[in-house]
Design goal:
The chain is an alpha/beta fold. The chain folds into 2 domains: 4-116 and 126-169, Spore Coat Polysaccharide Biosynthesis Protein SpsA, Chain A (Alpha-Beta Complex), CATH 3.90.550.10; 175-256, no CATH class. Helices cover 38% and strands 23% of the residues. It is built from 7 helices and 12 strands. It has helices at residues 17-22, 41-46, 61-68, 88-100, 175-195, 207-219, 226-256; strands spanning 4-10, 29-34, 51-55, 76-81, 84-86, 107-116, 119-120, 129-136, 143-145, 152-153, 158-160, 166-169. Strands 1, 2, 3, 4, 5, 6, 7, 8, 11 and 12 form a 10-stranded mixed β-sheet that branches. A two-stranded antiparallel sheet has the order 9-10. Strand 9 (143-145) and strand 10 form a beta hairpin. Helix 5 (175-195) packs across helix 7 (226-256) and helix 6 runs antiparallel to helix 7. The longest helix has 31 residues, at 226-256. The radius of gyration is 19 Å and the shape is globular.
Length: 257
Amino acid sequence: MLDVTGFVLTQNNEKTLRECLDSIQWCDEIIVVDSFSTDSTEAIAKSYPKVRFLQHEYENYMEQRIWGIPKVKTKWTFSLDSDEVCSIPLRDKIIEILNSGDETHDGYLFLIRTQIFGKLLKHQDLLSSRGKRLVMTKHATRYWKPARVHAQLRLDNKKVMPNEFYIIHNPIDSFTDHFRKMARYTRWQAQDMFDAGKKVYWWHFTLRPMGKFLHFYIIKGGFRDGLEGLVVCALGAVNVAMKHIILAEMNHEAKRR
C-alpha cells in the first residue's frame, strides 16, 4: 500500500476522463468529485472499482477541493484534473518517493506539459505551469491566496521536481468547448481582479496580449512547436484580452450603480 489517493475534479469530461483514470490506477483509491455532469462522466467513473464517486455543486476550484479533500483517508493526495494524465516517468517517481517513506517534504511540484492535436509541446506554454500535485493530505486545503481560478496552496517545505517528471494536460478536445471554458474561466479571473480593485487601461487590450504572445512564442520557444505552438500561444493572448474586456465591463457597470 502506497498510502495515496488519486483526487480528480470533473464536469462533463467523458472524452478525457478514462485516460486520466487509467493513468492513476496505481493509487490505493481514487476519489472523483463531479459537478453534476450531464454526459456519461458518472458512468465512466463508476466503472472503475477503485473510484469513489462524489458529487458537489461547483463554485470554484478551491472550494471544490476544500469540500472533497477531507474525504481522503490516506496520508498523501495526488491531484489531477480530468483532462490531465500522469505520465509513466512521473508515476514511477511518485511510487519511488512513497515507497521510501521520506516525509521531509510536505508536497511536490511537477511540470504540467500541454498536449494539443496529439502533440506534446516542447516549450513551457501559457497553459503549462508547476502544480503542487503530490501533497500530504493534512496540508492539501491550506490556501494562502484564495482565487476562483488558480488558487495557491501554501506548503512549508515543498520540493520542485525535475522537468522529466511531468503531468500531461489535454486542454483542447474541441475549440467550441474550449472557448466555452475560456469564457467561464476569464469571467472568474476578471471577478477576482474586480474584487481586488483592479483598473483597466488601453494597454491591457493591446500591449498586454501582444506581450504575452511574444513572451511565450519567442522567449519560451513556442515557435519550435510549429502550428500547435502558434495556436496555444495565440489562445494565451486571447485569454489575456478577454479577462480585461470583462473586467472593463464590470468596472463600467459598477460606476453606473
